[in-house]
Amino acid sequence: MKFPRKFFFDGRNTFLKGSLIFLFFFLITRLPYLIYYPVNILSNDSASYISAAFSILNSVTPLFDIRTPGYPVFLAKIWFFSESIFTVSLMQIIFSLFTGILLIYIFSAVYKKYSVVFACCLTVYMTSSYFLILESALLTEGIFTNVLLICAALMILSLKRDRNIYMILFSVSTAVLIFIRPAGMFFFGIIILMIIYFIIKKYGVLKYVSLIIPITVLITGLCIYNYSTLGKFTITPFGEANLAGVTILFMETSDEYPGFVNQAIQQTLDSIPRKDKSYVRNSYGITKLFSVFRDNFHRQLHFAGNLMGEDSTKKYMDIQPYMRTVSMDAIKKNPDIYAKFFMSNFIFFFRNLGIELKYFDQLRYNYKRNIVDKRYITELDKKKWQQISSDRSMNEKVKEFLQKEINLQEELKYISVTDNGEVIAQSTFLKSLYELYESLYNFFLRNVIWYIAFFAMFAFSIYLLLKTRFKNTDAVIAFLICMIFLTKALMVSLVESSLERYSYTVEFAVYFSIPFLLILIDNYKNLKLNSKKV
Prior knowledge:
Layout: H1 2-9, H2 14-36, H3 46-57, H4 70-79, H5 85-110, H6 115-126, H7 129-135, H8 141-161, H9 164-180, H10 187-201, H11 205-230, H12 239-247, H13 259-270, H14 274-282, H15 286-296, H16 299-308, H17 316-333, H18 335-351, H19 359-372, H20 375-381, H21 395-409, E1 415-417, E2 423-425, H22 429-444, H23 450-467, H24 473-495, H25 500-503, H26 508-511, H27 513-533
Antiparallel strand pairs: 1-2
């Protein structure tokens, strides 16, 4: 028993040991995709990112009325050299590798004794099937999650080392996170908590400047750009579409709305099963409520499409004020139903950790949807607004790009399609090895029992904060790591459906609870020892 303990806790060669553990499992989980099964993973959101990237590549002033600029700029930089979806996936995997090594290096610098434990927990997080699928998808999660990890690591570094340069880097990385996906705005809550901590610690002005000014300048720059191109000073005007998804089951027509708005509302409501509209008004079953809200959330795009109608000159910004008004009126008139939405989604945000995902099932599903059924080509042929963006000038180019990708995917050697349309991933040693790892992973690690450690860390950090009058930096960090998870859960539950795609991005906070509990226990022991000496 001495060897494992010495290996994990002796504090020697921690960066090397942590990196080797991470690299071993990183390769086991990525090589099947890279060598044998490079299936394109797309969603309904992908076309709008492609369109914005092509606008940048073609020197067309892009409209960020639907998407923020972070991911389209990332795509454009890659496609300037090699225009393919696989290249994007490859670069996102390389970015994950860089992120993992960077975090292990930072942990080795600030928590040397427990850095190997941190590396193991980071490895657990970054080798889940959810992480792998979304890492290689043409979606913001491919880089959002890595930038989020870097934000957390820089936050730890800035508080432990107490140097303003690290605080500036943390502030910049948070702005980049929001540029990639507006959901990153939940980090504003973390920044507010840090400011409160600065006030308690009576830090000088320079500390506040280092934290606040970089993110303020960058976010203001985005707002100015949007004002010049969209006529609105905002990070993104697309939030109203999410609110429409929240209220889609209980929005109502009104004499105060223009006729075309009432017509769009009625068209949307008529497309929803009557039993679903009735259930959210009259029932309280959390599981069923979550399912009903989740299954109808996507109709926000139908509502937007109905508002835009057949007028090809109408853009999202033309209908955005009406979407906001209708959604806010629905919440004001039906606060009880909105409360049901919030509670059911908040609870399921936590339940998601217990949901398993089969990696190769997802690859087969994506191949059938994208290549066999040509779903997104079909959607683009319909010329529907929700599948692209307000700027429809890139529709044909996006369609040509996806058709080229389909042609390449049809040539994959280890993916085949039977006569009845069933997609088969041929057996390989790496596939069998991965499936063994996945089965063990899902049994031991995809489990809500991990929340015991998470809430123990949360409670222990609060206890030490109060006990030491906020002087214990490790307790502050542990508390903030917990709040990253909780503020994301709060924000998602207020304006979105709590899909696993949204919750997995902060699940690292749950796995990190193990090393932080060990650190807090050490702090508590030292505190007791010092009190006895006194």
